[in-house]
Amino acid sequence: MLLTELKQKLDSFPQVKLLWGATPIVRAKNLSKETGVELYIKRDDLTGLALGGNKTRKLEFIMGEALEKGCDTVITAGAVHSNHALQTAAAAKKLGLDAVLVLRGKEENKGNLLMDRIINAEVRIYDVETSRELKDYMEEIAEELAERGKKPLIIPVGGSNPTGVLGYLRAAAEIVGQSNSMGLEFDYVVTPTSSGGTQTGILLGLKLLEPKIKALGIGVGDPREELLDDVGRLIKETAEILNVDEGIVSRDELEACTIDGYGFGGYGTVVREVIDLIKYIAGQEGFYLDPVYTGKGFYGLMDMIRKQVIPPGSKVLFVHTGGLGGIFQYEDIIAGML
Ligand code: 5PA
Questions:
Q1: Which 8-state DSSP code applies to residue 24?
Q2: Out of 3.40.440.10, 3.10.350.10, 3.60.40.10, 3.40.50.1100, which CATH number does the structure's domain 3-53+161-335 have?
Q3: From CA 281, how far away is CA 289, in angstroms rounded?
Q4: pLDDT tens digits for range 236-247
Q5: 220, 293 Cβ separation under 8 angstroms
Q6: What is the pTM of this model?
Q7: What is the pLDDT of residues 245-284, one digit of tens each?
Q8: Which residue, by CA, sits nearest to atom 17 of ligand 1?
C-alpha cells in the first residue's frame, strides 16, 4: 500500500489531535558504536500529553470515537502504575470529559497514581490479580453512570482495540515517512508489547507499507499465549476496519516476531538486571527507560544484538513507548538497587 493511501484511510476515522507532532527519531551514537548495529530511538515518550508515551497515539482515535458517540465520560482499567490510565485521564480532561480509572494494586500516592489524583480523575482500586479481571467492574460502573444519566465509553486495558491500533498504524506511517526523508532503511523496528495494540499497529503498518522491515514485539512478562491471541485478534479486527486482507500476517509470522524470555518472572516485576540497564542507558545516551515496559524491551533488544540474533551492521529502530512514571511508582525498590 502506498504511504499516502494509508494516511488517507487513517484520516477518514474520527479523531482528535493530542500529539504535538511527529516524535523525533534520534541516533543512539554511543550505543551504536558499542554494539556494532546502527541504533536509533523513536521518542514516543515525547508525545506531549501528561508524561508522554504510546497511549497518546491510541487515544487520538479512541477519544475521537468517544466524542463522535456523544460520550461524556471514559472508563478504563489497568495496574496502579498504569501509564495508559494516566494518559486517558489527561486526554479526557483536555477534552472536557470525565475519567474513571479502575485500577488494581497497592494504594500508594506516588508515581502515576499521584499524577492521576493531581489531575482529579476518579480512581477506584480493586483487589484482583490481573487487569483482565477489571472488565466486570468497568461494566458495573458504566451501568451505574448510565443510570445517573451519563454517557460513558469503556476503553479496554491499554486502549488495545482496533480503534486504538489505528494510532500505531499512523506511527508506522510516520516511521516510514521519516526514514525516507532521513535516507535510512531500517531492518528492524522493535517495541515492548503487553496489551498488544502497539505491536499490532507497527506490525500491520509495516507489513502494508514496507514488508522488508521486521517488526519485533518484546514481551514484558504477560503470558505468551494470551499475548499471541490478543495480537492475532487485533490484526484481524483492524484489517477488517481498514478493508485489507485479514490474513495479511500469518500465525507463524506472528509467533516468530513476538519475542519471549525477557519478562523476568512476569508482568510488573522490577528486577536488578533491568535497573542496571536503565542506569547504563541513561549514562550513555541521556534518556530514561522505565522498569516495567521499555527497560525489559530494551534489555531484550540488547541481548538479541549480543547473541547476533540481530546481526551486526543491522539498522534498528527501538520505539521508546514512555512509562517514566514507573520510575517514581517503584522509587523505593529502584533506590534500593542503585
Ligand atoms: C505499555 C502498556 P501495549 O499495551 O500497546 O502492548 O504497549 C505496551 C506498553 N510501553 C509499552 C509502555 C510505557 C506502556 O505503558 N501499558 C499498559 C498500561 O496500563 O499502561 C497497558 C498495559
A1: P
A2: 3.40.50.1100
A3: 8
A4: 999 999 999 999
A5: yes
A6: 0.98
A7: 999 999 999 999 999 999 999 999 999 999 999 999 999 9
A8: 158
